[in-house]
């Protein structure tokens, strides 16, 4: 592929149009080297990898504006964005990264002093595993992570729009979308990060968070009786809510308090362990509106398939994530979810890793006697040997996947002219769960992003819809789109209060969900070849993190998974050891640290890195 992240990637608008065209055509890729088979020895066999990406199906896109008028329009220049680094130029990379992402201690005290009121009333961040850093006023200035800073930075960026009253949406044409196409960062997979989820903990522990910035999801929405309304979820939201009566406020707070330590009160739920969570809620004297909020907007679980214990666990997880970085449990990475894979690539590149784009692999070379994979052959006909091989599921040929049963995810991406729920602030990041119309069908998760997330141009919103597939993506999601949005750009609504947001552009597609497939389901897989899946349909990223750690521990059981990386400025290199090791890939000694290094550090001082001589 010519982009990072596979099905986790983000695209500009023109990049997404190219991706759509590529997946609609599904052309075969011709071998650039026809004689690569002569590299295979007599005692070896090959597993040819798939040259077609079959993970994306039923791609349909619609333009609700004058598409012909945009034929000769070209994209404007690129927005300033963090650079992506390959194998070379690591010294310049480290310097550029420091300029683009200044150390947290240089900005955090200023942010804290300017917006002290934003930090009051929020729960302090817990001690962060791996680097023994706690975000408190005492040590923030010296060792805070990017997550700690971005959480406070949000208060700074969100203060101004609240003073602006809601205005009539400006007319945006398709030509403008094309011209401003680089302002869009459109994710193929739509997810949010739980503030106390596995991915956030991993980003902090590994120091990868220094390459990313995040924005709080500002509100949780619900769709009930044909209307979108905001859900009160924190204590302050509950008591400030005008949509709940005083009795409902007390009932809701009592139930949420119970959910935080429900394990201590088994007598209250053990009689309903075999019931659904919806049935359990019906026994708690909660009003229908409260049951709806809890089921669909807090626990975010199925009304028919979710058991009582699963629902209580989901509610507790939601509540535990409140207050760490804001009034909702969720964070969203600026520039899109596709930034996360690139952040790990940046860290990898700084410490000597190589990531090759546009460099496909023809086959795996397997030793017939041992059954282990010995090498791969690339499309240049070059044989590359290694001890371990990690392959994404989509590259496996059909002969290996005959017993695999895949699920599908239905996805839609919309560009709209205004929010599904207008408020005084235009810069909102919202999550909305739309319950299924028919029992047995999945709920639809809707994530709406504003321009301050760096995913869309000004005066537009980027809306992601996701659900497990039952039919094609358009059949699954278009009924929800019609409920929430106006697809008729010519129609004028006299009553502005009843006017729905207008869809300017939309795409639907089905994506393969290969998560949860056991290794034994694949036929003839060598023991040292590990399979990783694409994105799953869940809102968070826990599945991907668990899978990555499992694969790593199987390969290196004695090693720590993603240990804290030293800061580049803290590393001292021995010039005598570095000089003989320089290669064509780098002109700088800063690419030399490898995973097999011995590190010693004292307190907050320098870290000495020495190359392992066993190589």
From TrEMBL:
The keyword Membrane does not apply. It holds the Pfam family RAE1_2_domI_C. One of its GO terms (cellular component) is cytosol. Residues 571-584 have a biased composition (Acidic residues). It is found in: Cytoplasm, Cytosol. GO terms for biological process: intracellular protein transport; small GTPase-mediated signal transduction; vesicle-mediated transport. Keywords: Cytoplasm, GTPase activation, Transferase. Residues 409-537 form the RAE1/2 domain. InterPro entries: FAD/NAD-bd_sf, GDP_dissociation_inhibitor, Rab_escort, RAE1_2_domI_C. GO terms for molecular function: GDP-dissociation inhibitor activity; GTPase activator activity; transferase activity. Residues 138-147 have a biased composition (Polar residues). Residues 103-147, 561-615 are annotated as: Disordered. PANTHER family: CHM, RAB ESCORT PROTEIN 1, RAB GDP-DISSOCIATION INHIBITOR. Belongs to the Rab GDI family. This is RAE1 geranylgeranyltransferase. It comes from Corythaixoides concolor.
């Amino acid at each position: 592929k010519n982009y990072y992240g596979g099905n986790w990637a983000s695209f500009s608008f023109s990049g997404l149009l190219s991706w759509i065209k590529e997946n609609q055509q599904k052309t075969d890729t011709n071998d650039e080297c026809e004689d690569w088979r002569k590299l295979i020895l007599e005692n070896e066999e090959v597993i040819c990898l798939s040259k077609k990406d079959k993970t994306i199906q039923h791609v349909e896109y619609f333009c609700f504006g004058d598409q012909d008028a945009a034929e000769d329009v070209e994209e404007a220049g690129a927005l300033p964005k963090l650079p992506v680094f390959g194998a070379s130029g690591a010294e310049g990379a480290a310097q550029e990264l420091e300029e683009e992402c200044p150390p947290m201690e240089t900005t955090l005290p200023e942010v804290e002093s300017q917006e002290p009121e934003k930090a009051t009333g929020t729960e302090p961040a817990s001690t962060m595993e791996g680097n023994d850093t706690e975000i408190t006023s005492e040590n923030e200035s010296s060792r805070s992570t990017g997550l700690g800073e971005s959480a406070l930075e949000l208060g700074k960026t969100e203060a101004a729009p609240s003073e602006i009253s809601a205005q009539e949406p400006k007319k945006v044409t398709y030509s403008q979308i094309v011209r401003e196409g680089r302002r869009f960062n459109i994710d193929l997979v739509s997810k949010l990060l739980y503030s106390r989820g596995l991915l956030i903990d991993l980003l902090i522990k590994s120091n990868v968070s220094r390459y990313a910035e995040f924005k709080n999801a500002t509100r949780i929405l619900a769709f009930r009786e044909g209307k979108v309304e905001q859900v009160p979820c924190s204590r302050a939201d509950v008591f400030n809510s005008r949509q709940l009566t005083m009795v409902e406020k007390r009932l809701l707070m009592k139930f949420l308090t119970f959910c935080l330590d429900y394990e201590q009160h088994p007598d209250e739920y053990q009689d309903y362990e075999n019931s659904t969570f919806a049935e359990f809620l019906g026994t708690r004297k909660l009003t229908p509106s409260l049951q709806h909020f809890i089921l669909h907007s807090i626990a975010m679980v199925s009304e028919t398939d979710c058991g009582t214990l699963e629902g209580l666990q989901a509610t507790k997880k939601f509540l535990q994530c409140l207050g760490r970085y804001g009034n909702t449990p969720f964070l969203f990475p600026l520039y899109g979810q596709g930034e996360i894979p690139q952040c790990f690539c940046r860290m990898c590149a700084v410490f000597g890793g190589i990531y090759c784009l546009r460099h496909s692999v023809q086959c795996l070379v397997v030793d017939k006697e041992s059954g282990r994979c010995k090498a791969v052959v690339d499309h240049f006909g070059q044989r590359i040997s290694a001890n371990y091989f990690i392959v994404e599921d989509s590259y496996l040929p059909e002969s290996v996947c005959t017993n695999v049963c895949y699920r599908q995810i239905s996805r839609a991406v919309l560009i709209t002219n205004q929010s599904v729920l207008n408020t005084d602030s235009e810069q909102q990041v919202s999550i909305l769960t739309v319950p299924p119309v028919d029992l047995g069908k999945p709920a639809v998760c809707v994530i709406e992003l504003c321009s301050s997330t760096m995913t869309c141009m000004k005066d537009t919103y980027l809306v992601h819809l996701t659900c497990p597939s039952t039919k094609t993506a358009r059949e699954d999601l278009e009924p929800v789109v019609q409920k929430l949005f106006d697809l008729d750009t010519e129609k004028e609504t006299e009553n502005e209060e009843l006017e729905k947001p207008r869809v300017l552009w939309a795409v639907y597609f089905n994506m393969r969900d290969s998560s949860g497939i056991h290794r034994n389901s694949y036929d003839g897989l060598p023991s040292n070849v590990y399979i990783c899946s694409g994105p799953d349909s869940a809102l968070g990223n826990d599945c991907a993190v668990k899978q990555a750690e499992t694969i790593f521990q199987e390969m290196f059981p004695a090693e720590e998974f993603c240990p804290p990386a030293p800061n580049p400025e803290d590393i001292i290199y021995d010039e005598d050891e570095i000089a003989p090791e320089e290669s064509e890939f780098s002109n700088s000694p800063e690419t030399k640290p490898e995973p097999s290094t011995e590190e010693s550090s004292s307190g907050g001082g320098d870290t000495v890195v020495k190359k392992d001589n066993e190589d």
